[in-house]
């Protein structure tokens, strides 16, 4: 190769390296585009929770320092309350509950969590409510339920039904002394005993207290599988802290006392917790686990009368010949509770021994007729339960005329 060709080739290589280096330097010297800064979320500090009484409703006002984020809310039962979760608020300045106690609302409680604040409004009875947001303020309007007006209305409707029924000719009146009404049971303070009964397909526990058991919650946990039952506001006199057993469904029951509740833990004998049911009967909770027989229709529980309430001296023939009391029963309250494996609708009536019939009126509607009973006007409203994880979406109440009497459907 000639010397001139070698020089030309070397010059070309050097020129290419120079061009490549400049391009690389320019690429390295380019200023990167600045990242878009993340939006700063302002936390609204709640400095006031107050209420005002209007003619037909109570207004609860939550005042914050910044615009309040949209709330998430739902109606909960046992105890009946409105639970409102609001993201990015600080409730630490609210030191004590707001007492209202106006016959419809009990109190307003606040709880601070890491990423949200929770406002709970306890209700003394079912009513309508509306929640709205005005920039820095959250407003909750709750319809009042007037106890005095309700009582007069119920009495008036009872008298109207009574007058209608007395038109029928009656036989010679027989004077009978009314059976004594048992005194109302006091609220339970302590659990006094635990009894259990083992069947082939399931096991049943009777949790017995010294009075009427009210609020309780249940949920299941895994690893290991167990059922947890919390009974609120109750202590224990039961001497044992645990009960061990050889059973295919439950291997142990553990009892723990907490400041605000009594906790019972049912340890499963199986890797997966078996089916269970919890039913409340005045002073006891009945907990069943295992292959519990399921009814084909809805279950309706009615408190059974004890033998002490029946007159011991009355002959059988005389008892059977007594006419049934004709006084109509008034609905006093309706409650809905979502449990782990079922939904429960609770009707409270003013008279004992309700008679009822249940039927399936269509593929997705169950009808329960309570005989010789009526719903006062203030309770003639629908109950929307679609916010719960339940097969029940809506509960409708209405009065049905049956001859000269009235039924609740």
Describe this structure as you would to a colleague.
The strands form eight sheets. The protein has a five-stranded mixed beta sheet, with no helix packed on it. Strands 3-4-8-7-6 form a five-stranded antiparallel beta sheet, with no helix packed on it. A five-stranded mixed beta sheet has the order 15-11-12-20-19, with no helix packed on it. About 5% of the residues have low confidence. It is extended and about 125 Å long. It starts with a helix and ends with a strand. With 409 residues, the protein is mainly beta. It has three helices and 29 strands.
Topology overview:
Layout: H1 3-29, E1 44-53, E2 57-64, E3 72-76, E4 81-87, E5 89-90, E6 98-99, E7 105-112, E8 116-123, E9 129-134, E10 137-143, H2 147-165, E11 190-198, E12 202-209, E13 216-221, E14 226-232, E15 235-236, E16 242-244, E17 250-257, E18 261-268, E19 276-281, E20 284-290, H3 316-321, E21 329-338, E22 343-349, E23 356-362, E24 365-370, E25 373-374, E26 383-384, E27 394-395, E28 399-402, E29 405-408
CA-based gyration radius: 33 Å
- Distance separating the two termini: 111 Å
Number of domains: 3
Give the strand line-up of the largest sheet: 5-1-2-10-9
- The chain-level mean pLDDT equals 77
Low-confidence stretches: 304-325
Please state the structural category. mainly beta
Q: Approximately what portion of the residues adopt beta-strand conformation?
A: 35-45%
**Based on DSSP secondary structure assignment, what is the total number of beta strands?**
29
**Number of H- or I-type helical stretches:** 3
Please bin the fraction of helical residues.
10-25%
Based on Cα principal axes, name the global outline. Answer: extended
Largest sheet: 5 strands, mixed
């Amino acid at each position: 190769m000639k010397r001139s060709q070698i020089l030309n080739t070397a010059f070309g290589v050097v020129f290419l390296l120079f061009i490549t280096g400049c391009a690389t330097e320019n690429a390295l010297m380019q200023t990167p585009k600045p990242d878009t800064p993340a939006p700063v979320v302002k936390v609204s500090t709640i400095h006031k929770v107050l209420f005002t009484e209007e003619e037909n409703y109570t207004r609860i006002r939550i005042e914050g320092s910044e615009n309040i984020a949209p709330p998430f809310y739902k109606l909960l039962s046992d105890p009946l309350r409105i639970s409102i979760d609001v993201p990015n608020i600080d409730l630490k300045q609210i030191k004590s509950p707001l007492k209202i106690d106006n016959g419809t609302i009990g109190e307003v409680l606040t709880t601070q969590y890491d990423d949200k604040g929770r406002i709970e409004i306890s209700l003394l009875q079912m009513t309508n409510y509306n929640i709205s947001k005005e920039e820095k303020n959250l407003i909750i309007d709750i319809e009042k339920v007037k106890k005095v007006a309700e009582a007069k209305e119920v009495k008036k409707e009872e008298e109207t039904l009574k007058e209608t029924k007395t038109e029928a000719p009656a036989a010679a009146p027989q004077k009978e002394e009314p059976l004594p009404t048992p005194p109302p049971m006091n609220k339970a303070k302590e659990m006094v005993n635990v009894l259990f009964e083992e069947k082939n397909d399931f096991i049943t526990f009777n949790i017995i207290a010294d009075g009427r058991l009210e609020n309780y919650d249940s949920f299941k946990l895994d690893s290991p599988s167990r059922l947890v039952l919390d009974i609120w506001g109750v202590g224990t006199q039961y001497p044992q802290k645990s009960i061990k057993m050889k059973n295919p469904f439950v291997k142990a029951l553990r009892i723990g006392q907490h400041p605000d509740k009594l906790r019972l833990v049912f340890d499963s004998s199986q890797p997966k917790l078996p089916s269970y049911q919890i039913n409340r009967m005045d002073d006891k909770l009945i907990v069943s686990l295992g292959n519990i027989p399921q009814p084909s229709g809805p279950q309706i529980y009615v408190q059974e009368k004890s033998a002490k309430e029946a007159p011991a001296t009355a002959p059988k023939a005389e008892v059977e010949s007594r006419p049934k009391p004709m006084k109509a029963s008034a609905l006093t309250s309706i409650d809905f509770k979502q449990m782990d494996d079922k939904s429960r609708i609770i009707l409270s009536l003013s008279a004992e021994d309700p008679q009822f019939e249940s039927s399936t009126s269509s593929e997705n509607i169950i009808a329960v007729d309570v005989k010789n009973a009526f719903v006062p006007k203030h309770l003639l409203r629908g109950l929307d339960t679609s916010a719960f994880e339940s097969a029940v979406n809506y509960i409708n109440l209405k009065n049905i005329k049956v001859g000269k009497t009235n039924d609740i459907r």
